[in-house]
TrEMBL record:
This is 3-keto-5-aminohexanoate cleavage protein. It comes from Herbaspirillum hiltneri N3. Keywords: Metal-binding, Transferase, Zinc. Its cofactor is Zn(2+). InterPro entries: Aldolase_TIM, BKACE. PANTHER family: 3-KETO-5-AMINOHEXANOATE CLEAVAGE ENZYME, 3-KETO-5-AMINOHEXANOATE CLEAVAGE ENZYME-RELATED.
Length: 312
């Protein structure tokens, strides 16, 4: 591997579509909040900024390009971080809604969920007694009876349409089967190495947060793709975030943090910003003698087209 490939890429998922405002007063929901937290996270060391949008009035997930345009151009002007736009949106959105902004932006990178699945945090509803907005309770409880739809046809459409624009993907794999789904598309010639595989642990409906599962995912990816052909990254949901991503770096991988994945900075302590999580994992990694990849180095590692090729 090249020298730069040994550096650790820190991704930051700023707000997501799973957590609701009642879970944390620090979850960014307005365009200004998302913009400011994304810029601060980039300044703290995140080379990749993973972005969703929310309705500025009540914080519900939205695919509206007009909302994205209230913060993405500002982030692009203020930082050289890689802008990574979701194609997952939320479990309630249609594929056309999920693709609305990526089609316009033609970003360097988009997330791409690699299979349909149960995807839920519905047990959290029982722990919340004071809901900030009227939509939240039904949204969280409704996850118990909702499928996150990512069919082979959906995945193929995203690969073909956005791939033609030069967009590369953060392949979000929530279980071992998702790695095999990715291998299917590799065999079809729809995606080319180097692959950026984001292994997600601890989501109800996906693979558990047991450390042993990381070894299974890593070994399976090695067998399917060859370690020289992909970059492994890990996100840990909730309380598992920092321990699992630290383990990922020790195993030669990259890390993702952010309020999309966990609203905590320590046991029982809410993170006050995305940058706080970035600073903490950066400190841990540097104490372990890891070098942190800059955005330019991340672009080289992942074969991205460059921030000057997007249209914010």
């Amino acid at each position: 591997m090249s020298k730069t490939s040994k550096k650790v890429i820190i991704s930051c998922a700023v707000t997501g579509a799973t957590h609701v405002p009642s879970m944390s007063a620090y979850l960014p929901i307005t365009p200004a909040q998302i913009r400011d937290q994304a810029i601060e996270a980039a300044e703290a060391g995140a080379a990749i900024i993973h972005l969703h949008a929310r309705d500025p009035v009540d914080g519900r997930p939205t695919p509206d390009p007009a909302v994205f345009r209230q913060f993405v151009p500002d982030i692009a002007k203020a930082t050289d971080a890689v802008i990574n736009i979701t194609t997952g949106g939320s479990t309630r959105m249609t594929l056309a809604e999920r693709l609305a902004y990526p089609r316009l932006l033609q970003p360097e990178m988009c997330s791409l969920n690699m299979g349909s699945m149960n995807f839920s945090i519905h047990p959290v509803a029982a722990k919340i007694t004071d809901w900030r907005y009227g939509w939240e309770k039904d949204y969280v409880e409704g996850m118990e009876d909702t499928i996150f739809k990512n069919t082979f046809s959906d995945i193929k459409q995203i690969m073909l349409e956005l791939g033609a624009q030069g967009t590369r993907f953060e392949f979000e794999c929530y279980d071992v089967s998702h790695l095999y789904n990715l291998a299917h598309f590799v065999e079809q010639g729809l995606v080319k190495a180097p692959f950026f595989i984001q292994a997600a642990f601890g989501i109800l409906g996906g693979i558990g947060a047991d450390p042993e599962n990381m070894s299974v995912m890593r070994a399976t990816a090695d067998r399917l793709f060859g370690r020289e052909n992909y970059h492994f990254s890990v996100l840990g949901a909730g309380r598992h975030q920092l321990s699992l991503v630290t383990m990922a770096a020790i195993l030669g991988g990259n890390v993702r943090v952010g309020l999309e994945d966990s609203v905590y900075i320590a046991k029982g302590v809410k993170a006050e910003s995305n940058a706080q999580q970035v600073r903490k994992i950066r400190h841990i990694l540097e104490e372990l003698s890891f070098d942190i990849a800059t955005p330019a180095e991340a672009r080289e590692m992942l074969g991205l087209k460059g921030g000057d090729k997007i249209s914010p």
